[in-house]
Each structure stands twice: as structure tokens, then as C-alpha cells.
Amino acid sequence: MKEVSLLDSKKNVVLSIKGLSKTIKKKQILHNIDMECYAGEVFGFLGPNGAGKTTTIKTVVGLLMLDEGEVSVCGHDITKEFEDAMANVGGIVENPEVYKYMTGRENLKQYARMRGLSLEEIDKAVEAVKLSNRINDKVSKYSLGMRQRLGVAQALMHKPRLLILDEPTNGLDPQGIKELRDILKQLAHEDGVCVVVSSHLMSEMELMCDRVGIIANGSMIGTYTMEEIVSRSKGKYSEYTIETDDAEAAKAALGGSAGLIAQGTTLFLRLNSMSAKADIAATIKNLVNNGINIYSVHPKESVSLEDAFIELTGTEGDGQIV
Ligand SMILES: Nc1ncnc2c1ncn2[C@@H]1O[C@H](COP(=O)(O)OP(=O)(O)OP(=O)(O)O)[C@@H](O)[C@H]1O
Ligand SMILES: [Mg+2]
Q1: In principle, which of 54, 96, 153, 167 could form an S-S bond with 125, CB 3.0–4.6 Å?
Q2: All domains in the chain, ordered by first residue
């Protein structure tokens, strides 16, 4: 197997989907899907309910046959070289299969035996998902977040280059989402795994993903970096809040231009999304050069991200699933 170098990881295609179509019971569910995901990134697979995310993921992990198109993992075509392709795939689709009356470790041991894996892999996988302290507890005593971690550990045991998770944050509380996010980012950014996560919430993907692919009604709308999504948002503006000693003084230092609102110690800025990154950097520099103390700078993008998602997927109508 080719080693992943973090330096060239961005260009290392792990999952390639070309012209994927699928019809179930005479209804065409997937239409000519194209998608590429790289080593070292967290890729968000986003779409409203019924868009075709689970169907696509089931095809990639070998649970569904494809009708047309090509899917390959690490260069292995899943139809022609199924075993070589699957050796590189770890996934959770719907609920991971675990035995509640066993401990987490017993479950992983059982899985290792079934897959012919060495038991040493268990500790590494458990360490990666930060479940070491509770791994000897019975799964029946686990919270949902712990069960998710156990599922990810199981999916990681054979060291897959592609980790694909269908709606992994479903049912997790904000703290659980943050913890899972940190684990997945670490796997991608530090270990070079290609992590693909599906979701129907753009706001959730914002902090987790490097890129997103958007699917609606079984068709791929496109793949975007998070910045591209922001710049596509309806208002085309990104908002920031800056905490200072005196917002009026900060506003005056910036020439009081349009898009600035001062309220006590908080300065609100509205910047054109296309140039927001450069503009916020210039604004901060400007304030500091004018002797203004800055205590914090916060982007407020989540609303416009949801707007961008709704605009791209055309789901604004009456909310009916088509
Ligand atoms: N076994 C099946 N038989 C008939 N239709 C199916 C089957 N599986 C999926 N579909 C249909 O395919 C479409 C896509 O379903 P899929 O589960 O892939 O969507 P999804 O994007 O995962 O949605 P969600 O966000 O609700 O999980 C839906 O219209 C669904 O009804
Ligand atoms: Mg689904």
C-alpha cells in the first residue's frame, strides 16, 4: 500500500466516483454522480433528506450494487477488485453492529477475530477515538457518543485509507459533536486518512470539513471549499464582531465606513464574502496600528451558510421531500 505523505496528501485521490447512477424499484435514485475525495481531508457530503447520501455511501462500502458508473478506492475499482477496494474502506452506515452485553473491548476483539486482524490494532483504534478509559465497560452502559466512538474505532481497526460515516453526528449533543469533530479532523489532518461524513446540516459541516460536496434529488450540485460556499451565500456578506474598549473609537479609526455598527464595546462589521478574509486581516491591522485594543474577533457565518445551502439545493419551497 502506498504511504500517505501529508505534503502531497491534498492531491492524493482516495475515493473516486464517476458517473454513478442507481435505480431502485424502477425509481432512479442517483443520477450520474461525480465526486473525488482526497487523503488528509474531511469531506462533507451534504444534502437534504432523501437526496441520495445513504444510497451513495452504501454503494461505496459495497452494501449496494451500482447500475452505471465507476467507484474506486485507492485506485481499486469496487466492481472489478472488490476485496482490494474494501481493504481500504472503513465505514458506518446506519447503526454500527455492536453487542450491548459485551464490553467495548470484547466487541472489538470479536470483530478483530472475524476479520483476521491482530489484537494489537484494538489499542491503537481505541486510543485514536479517545475511548481508553471506558473501553472495559459494557456497551449497555455507554452513551450514544461513546457508542459512536466504538463504531469509529471498529471501522478504523484495519487501518482504512477511507473512513466514510453516514450522519455520524445524529443524536449527539453539542459537546459530543465537538469531540467527534476533533477526532475526525485529527484522523484526516494528522494521519492522512480521507474522512467522508454525510450530513443535512451545513452549519455542522462548517467547522468539521475542508470541502463539501452537495447532492440534491440524486444529482451532484458541485464540490466547494467552505470559503466558496460562504461567498455564494444569498447576501454575499460575511459578518464579524470585534470586541474592543470603545467601538465608536474603533469605528472612527476605520473611517466610519458603511457596514460598521458600534454598540458599546462591540463593533459589528459586514464585509463582502469574496474578499472577507483579506478585509478582516486588513481591518485588524488598521485597528492595531491606530492603538485600538482588540480582545476578540468572531465570524458570524452560520446563517449565510444555511442560506447558501438552501439556495444551492433549491429546498426553500414548501419543505416537501420530492
Ligand atoms: N430500498 C429502497 N427502496 C425504495 N426507495 C429507496 C430505497 N432506498 C432509498 N430509497 C429512496 O432513495 C432516495 C434517497 O434515499 P437516501 O436514503 O439515499 O437519502 P439520504 O440523502 O440519505 O436522506 P436522509 O438525509 O433522510 O438520510 C429517497 O427518495 C428514498 O426514498
Ligand atoms: Mg441517509
Answers
A1: 153
A2: 9-231 (3.40.50.300), 236-306 (3.30.70.2190)
